[in-house]
Records
---
Amino acid sequence: MLRNHFETEHNLFRDAFRAFLDKEVVPHQEEWEEAGVVDRSVWRKAGEMGFLLPWAEEEYGGAGLKDFRYEQIMCEELAAINEPGFMIPLHSALCGPYIAEYGNAEQKARWLPGIIRGESILAVAMTEPSAGSDLAGMRTTAVDKGDHYVLNGSKVFISNGLLSDLVIVAAKTDPSNKHAMGLFVVERGMDGFERGRNLKKLGMKSQDTAELFFNNVKVPKENLLGDAKGGFFYLMNMLAQERLTNACGAVAGAEAALNATIDYVKERKAFDRPVAHFQNTRFKLAEMRTQIDVAQVFTDRCVMDHNQKKLTPEVAAEAKLFTTELLCKVVDEGVQLHGGWGYMWEYPICRMYANARIQRIFAGTSEIMKEIISRGMKL
Ligand SMILES: Cc1cc2nc3c(=O)[nH]c(=O)nc-3n(C[C@H](O)[C@H](O)[C@H](O)COP(=O)(O)OP(=O)(O)OC[C@H]3O[C@@H](n4cnc5c(N)ncnc54)[C@H](O)[C@@H]3O)c2cc1C
């Protein structure tokens, strides 16, 4: 289906980003998958090309492109090449905005230029071993000691956990109020800040997902973002944009899985004819085509609403719920139509299947999305 919300400048940006991925990412994907982490140098190269935080003000080195369609394009192109480890969307569309939105002028001047150049890689640490969906249940604490805070606790499943130079850590700041938390920028090398192992996962093999430990980490007050008790609100506020990012990548991932499957079933023969000729195959592919088109129209509309600051958390949750569930369905049907070869790592559909599964879990599970949507229905 023809999409109509991109203009010439977006198409040019897509061409440039695609060329960058072809040159700097695709040739390294297997090596990164083996290593369990992408090479740090690719972040600098992306920074040099202006692909990190393109929305940031020019005074910090950004391009001032306050248009979420550019983020959407990057999510789509990364999904199209099935690269889950090089998480530009996490850096640019999730973590960076915390600093731009809640940081003061001094903090922005201190951090944003390095973040935009790809020298300071970002992560956000909310989840703990005993608290994921229920963020208010986290146990990491930050105690006010005058000119600094002392952080204690641990985080788990943190994307960019090993590569990150600046980690936005959520920590409780008032024992009498479970929603009182602050967002603290913990820097690589701070005393008492330690990283655990690179966690072994079902998919996303090139992504360094790790545990983080904070043992009496002295964080200067200059590293607190915004209000020391406002972190919970800041997190909730930003999660809508994160969920839209997930939706953009999920639809593009479903499209890529559909295309890989179409190519395969046209080639593969069974009972003397291409698998594509079986009615079951054609019907399955037709269903996927229809559902992806519907999801794409909805997602594109959400992007345009977000540009006008009209995207509500409920609709962002709908977008994440629908598209990530669809992605998982499409990759599953794709594997089925590949037969045994679909279970082999050398086939793209196999990696797509493995990479897709987390989409229904992180940035809020499908069940939490339903909670948010139904709350909006005042049930
Ligand atoms: C690869 C990967 C990368 C990640 N990256 C990050 C990151 O960078 N930063 C970060 O902070 N976190 C990250 N996460 C954590 C992720 O966001 C959490 O795993 C997720 O929010 C779910 O939390 P949990 O794992 O504790 O599951 P739980 O909250 O324990 O949920 C278990 C089950 O209970 C269900 N459930 C929970 N509450 C309810 C409810 N109220 N109603 C109905 N069902 C419910 C859930 O839907 C789920 O099915 C990542 C996780 C993974 C696996």
---
Amino acid sequence: MFKLHPIPDADFCCPFCEGALQPQGWYMPGMRILADLRCDDCDQEYYGDLPSGHGLCFPMLLNKTTGEVWDQYQASWFASWLHVGYRDRQKTPVPFTSEEFRPIRQPIVLNCLDAMYGHGLLKLVHAQHYLDYYQEYDLIVIVPRWLRWLVPQDVAAIWTIDLPLRQGHEWNDWIAQEIQQRLAQFDHGWLASAYAHSFSELHVERFTQIQPFPIEEWDDQLNQLTVTFIWREDRLWVDSHIQQWRDRRFPGRLGRMWKKLAAQWFPALQEQTQQVIQLAEQLRQCYPQIRFVIAGLGKAGGLPDWITDLRTQTITEDVERSWCELYAQSQVIVGIHGSNMLLPSAHAATVIELMPNDRLGNVMQDLLLIPEAESRFAVFRYRFVPLESSPQVIAATIKSMIQTLPFAMIYLKSFQQTPCFNQPEVVTKRYRQSRLRELARPAS
Ligand SMILES: [Zn+2]
């Protein structure tokens, strides 16, 4: 964590004279957490990103007079949000709710405002670190309304700001003044780094109040085999060869005509629906009692009645909670890479993720793994497959995982992590039972 209040620890150089910029204070006009900086030699004032969230990796500098942004890390999207936000800055009041659960003496501020669902959620997950390792401090979490339900119950305070996701990158001077006034009463304040990529100890139940799938009870839970497909409509599981046709570019009018015709001839959403139905059918041949569920953001309907369709176009807290309950009952979750996989992966027993080529560099960023100290077993539980994989390949992968997980728990987990290793007869019995069950299944 970093010193924020009253004068933050900030390490920036003037873009002109290269002298150290002097921090004068801080400013938080929304998702941006900025040091207020000055160069006396050049008589210029700046704002610079403090080390929290993406400000840790890509700190930008903005000239207060000209609005020019210095982006030495070439994170153009992050620079653009700052540039456009400052240019179009607002001062409209927005609903601001403060809940204080205990007296605050040493505040640490965790700001989870963001324009991206996944970024906001990943920042919030970082709360666990401060709750566990900085118990003498008081964690204040700033969240947009859509994240409020996920805030752990043991924080000191929650400041909820009604800022829709699409406005998450806005610069609002009213928000800045509101936060400034609330922190002014304290002699000192700190900033949570929201370094959202270290989750080896994540306990998601502290956020959702829902226990993840009890992997140690895998055998018992098989009575209700549940496989869930995570649906999204803006990144699709479709045949890559057909997609190449769909994406062909032609100049001018021909291009517009082709776009229209391609959408008619090769409707991508229908193709995804067919792929998912094929996957479900393949699994049903092997497991006639399977509960195959589709959940996620999308229009429901058009599926065989034996598939449970939980898609919706209106996300509410109740919907998200019920989806998390479903994930926690799912032996396998399948879905396309993206923030849609964060909460599913944090609750389900195993995950198969379809990876598009253009997202390969972002692998793992969208998964919240259940704490799993044994890396070999973690690789068993969390699989990545190319987006081009057919329903047949995914079905075969799921079948192999369902059939071999009990053995993997024995073979791939270390000695100390498998309590029943102290009782060889239990292991043997379990192995035999699993083996018999496997043999009893119809060949697929
Ligand atoms: Zn200067």
